[in-house]
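>> Question from a student workshop board

For tomorrow's exercise we were told to take the sequence and the ligand below, predict the bound structure, and bring the output to class. My setup keeps failing. Could a helper post the expected result so I can at least see what it should look like? The ligand is iron/sulfur cluster.
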Amino acid sequence: MRSTERTLRSAAQLATSGLIPADRVAELEKVAERYAVALTPAVAGLINPGNANDPIARQFLPDVAELVTGQEERVDPIGDDTHSPVEGIVHRYPDRVLLKLVHVCAVYCRFCFRRETVGPGQKHALTPEALGRALAYIRQHREIWEVILTGGDPLVLSPRRLEAVVKQLAAIDHVKVLRLHTRVPVVDPRRMTPALVRAITAFGKAAYVVLHVNHPRELTREARAACARLADAGIPLLSQSVLLKGVNDDAQTLGDLMRSLVECRIKPYYLHHGDLAPGTAHLRTSIEHGQGLMRALRGDFSGLCQPTYVLDIPGGQGKSPVGPNYLQAVGRASYLVEDYRGGRHDYPPAADS
Ligand code: SF4
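>> Workshop helper replied:
Here is what the output should look like for this input. Compare the format with yours to find the bug.
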């Protein structure tokens, strides 16, 4: 494991830090020119350069396979643009909106579903005027019950700027819940200062933090301490993970990840099937494989360790659960229900059916 003092942002810096061989700099620089690279010291320190299949490296080190875009892959795989009424807002479902405050992240994941719109080449954050228009949209739409801060990673903002936005959202009467999607407590745990934690507490409204984490090794002692600071402040924590080939696509690793999360007081929320982002085919599994993993989790791991396996329908039609089905109708007479070992059992229909 290597330790670095600053975020690594180029192939040359990765080679200097011993994370890639020097003779691969030229080819990987081409990838870095196309899709942003950033590894914080915490992430770089987790990679074992001696292991060609290191699951942390697969998530963060550029790969020439990214330069191949499959026919099925899309620039905007989950259709954000289709549902964006004003800059910074995605209004896909009736009762909630995404508010994209920033276009940068602490790290850049090689499978990112917004890789065409996040990165240092993009505009850093909403201008004050654009933020004003986004907040006005939320105020005008009384059906909006929940605001999800995502982007970009909202926790790269300074505590002062984040608190200012959270306060304005909390002041909107019909907004009852704020949700922040972030990777920061894991990839840059020192950033989770008491001031940043205070900025999230939603001033009378419920605030949830949804942590993006994909492998149990990401939950280091420092990351666990950062999550504990949030939990101790009364902020409920949920997780979202992406199912990734060579990272977490075996039942033991996935189960260990879910257990580690629960031990950190983080309830596993979503397991995302990999989105059709450009140049990410080498990291996607089949849906059948994902369903098999979900079956294995149900058998061997606590109910607390069960996320919902979901797929974002390309084009912006929203998420659908795509996990295995355990119930099958048998004519009109009864059902067959499957137990966690694969055994099948009759279950009667309701008396009035
Ligand atoms: S943290 Fe999320 S938005 Fe940022 S690069 Fe990773 S997947 Fe993309």
